[in-house]
Write a structure and sequence with these properties.
4 copies of one chain form a homotetramer. The first copy, chain A, is an all-alpha fold. The first copy, chain A, is 66% helix and 0% strand. Chain B binds a DNA duplex through helix 2 and helix 3.
DNA sequence: ACTTAAACGAGACGGTACGTCGAGTCTTACC
DNA sequence: GGTAAGACTCGACGTACCGTCTCGTTTAAGT
């Protein structure tokens, strides 16, 4: 995304880019999405609030969604760095704890996720990006690759460890397995199909680990 | 949804409504969403294609999303009626077959769902509605209540039957259980997190029934 | 004007016409022109205010200007009848007094005209009709024939009497002569070129009678 | 007129204004008024014909009448410059000739005016503006101040010269005197009360100079 | 008095234009 | 050459009325 190196104009010189403007644009975009919602957030509005010319936005990003995506990635990275042991490779990732009790570890992480999903500063932009991604495949794939997949990979890692510890069957595909508890939460949140809670995610983990058929 | 009896104008007289225009608007809206995509579908475009004045749309619906929602509901109902034993109450519902083999029944239905999700005539509008619903809570809830939940209820029914047959544990909540295989498919489709296939949904059913922990 | 007997529909049956509606339409049209001005007076507005269907207006008149013209003619006739000795032929005409003093008679009538031009109930509709007539030749000619010319004819009559009395030269064309004092007043009023007053019209009469060259 | 510095938007920067667009708008407005008439001339039509966005019109003018007024002023100035000895101050004014024969001078100028009033390129827009001015006092006053009064002033000047030469009585008010021949012509033209011709204006001058009473 | 057809009130309809907003492009002046 | 500012063309918005077209419902003439 971003970086429209398609045959536009001469192609901007990134070394002369104004860091100040970039930050102001990120801040304005995120603030507006929280305050007035994504559909009413406009490029003109972002430019005005950031004290920036419209052209400066069009020079570096290709669309409103693109601006917001980068702003949100930036926000996530900042949050990651702030909140502690950021990973070396710049990923926004914490590892999932491994106390030896898989169920407890998953429940803990999912409870934290539930809490995060309720924080307006995260909810508004991520909802907006998710919505845009549903209808705009390119953005959707970027969103997944840059934000979602790295997080899911943490579950894959934890599940692999569990397989080695014998807590998960060896023939199970971890990438699919994680969806048993992650996707239901995602759908309830995204589509308002039902409320989310700590109890709910606990239940999901239990069902996912042991199935719903009689043992 | 629709029918904004809030203090708009005097409130139109539904008995005088033109059935012809309504149908033409549904057809135009669905066709445009398929052809040019939801964001480029405009009220003016729908009106022009339907051979209808813009005011006729604004008189009966409050937004583009609202038009499309009703158009899609109508389409679903028609499809249900066409395809066979429609329910008495106008519900768009088929029951899930009960051959006695729960796994096989679920796999069959999910395979059919995968196929449907790939039909452009259904995919374009439902994707558009889902996206809009993510960012517009009111529409989202209506979408769920009118379209999604009735379909999910069929799974609830089948799972309850399975509980009585002893194929699902009695302490399992069917409304949550169904999410183990429905939500992962939904998320992959909606967010392009990974490809969908018959094999994939088969696997989901197996994991959901028996869990991922060693038996 | 009015009575569009052109090949429209079957042609309405005037004998069954609702007198009540006609009056209500006249009243509404005149009131709206006074209250909101001619451009903001709409057919829908007149119909609503008169408690009448739009079709009832379109059935009997061909345009907004046409409605107002008849309404104003009706108003003029009423005013004429009310104010005294209406002429036999239904004309809205009083004769100009003939006291033997031409200058005094003309000044008196023009002073009365100045007063009438300041009465909002007359000013608003007649201004509207005059304006429409400037740009719509057909209406303009009707306006002149039905309203203006009958009034000017009174001056012609008075001037002819004056010619017989030797107060006006025999070789003067009365139809042109009257314009020397009527048109300046009309232009000042219509076009706001300068204020109008009794003194002003008195002066006009003096100049017109004796010229501006040295005697 | 124009320049609505009232609390609209931030107020556009006139130095950045596109001269090309302005000219194109003037040309389109005048052409449309001539071709389809004032009522059927629309802002959208002007914009389309001028190859200009609607917003560019709304940015610089407040109404259709305002556009046309400026277009016509511009046309008049151009005509003045083209046709000869334009005044220094940008006034659209020629002096009225002074051959020593007042009657002949006035008749010559009025004959020229009659001819001009028949030129469609002038007639259509000036009729439209006059009509609008009748019903819209603000525009009417601007029309008079910017277009009409400067022309009438020429008559005032000529009449004053005539007073000094002893051809007009000293106690006559030239501003009123000029109306004796100008206003009748104006009214016949504006309101279609009677045809205009060179003979007619000659007669007006004779009547105005010497009056209609016996000498 | 009863019938019946036209006028009537109401208002939905296909349209056109309104005046506004924002998109994305282009130009100007500044640093 | 990047930038703030903002004018530009363009397209869609949602609204107001236009003039036409049904709908029942009066209502007045002719049986």
């Amino acid at each position: 995304m971003a970086r429209n190196q398609s045959a536009r104009h001469p192609a901007p010189d990134a070394t002369r880019r104004s860091e100040r403007s970039r930050r102001a644009i990120y801040d304005a975009a995120l603030a507006l999405v929280v305050e007035v919602g994504y559909p009413k957030t406009t490029i003109e509005g972002i430019a005005a609030r950031a004290g920036v010319g419209k052209q400066t936005i069009y020079r570096w990003w290709s669309s409103k969604a693109d601006v917001l995506l980068e702003a949100f990635l930036d926000l996530s990275e900042q949050a990651a760095e702030t909140a502690g042991e950021a990973q070396a490779d710049g990923g926004a990732a914490y590892a999932i704890p491994d106390t030896g009790d898989l169920a407890a570890d998953l429940k803990a992480v999912l409870r934290a996720t539930v809490d995060e999903l309720r924080d307006p500063a995260f909810e508004a932009p991520s909802r907006a990006l998710a919505a845009e991604g549903v209808v705009n495949e390119e953005l959707g794939r970027t969103f997944v690759a840059r934000l979602l997949e790295p997080q899911l990979q943490l579950y894959v890692d934890r599940l692999r460890a569990a397989q080695e510890a014998g807590d998960v069957r060896a023939d199970v595909d971890p990438r699919i397995a994680l969806e048993l508890f992650v996707s239901p939460l995602a759908q309830r949140w995204l589509q308002y199909t039902a409320p989310i809670s700590h109890d709910y995610t606990d239940t999901l983990v239990d069902y996912a680990l042991h199935g719903i058929a009689p043992r």
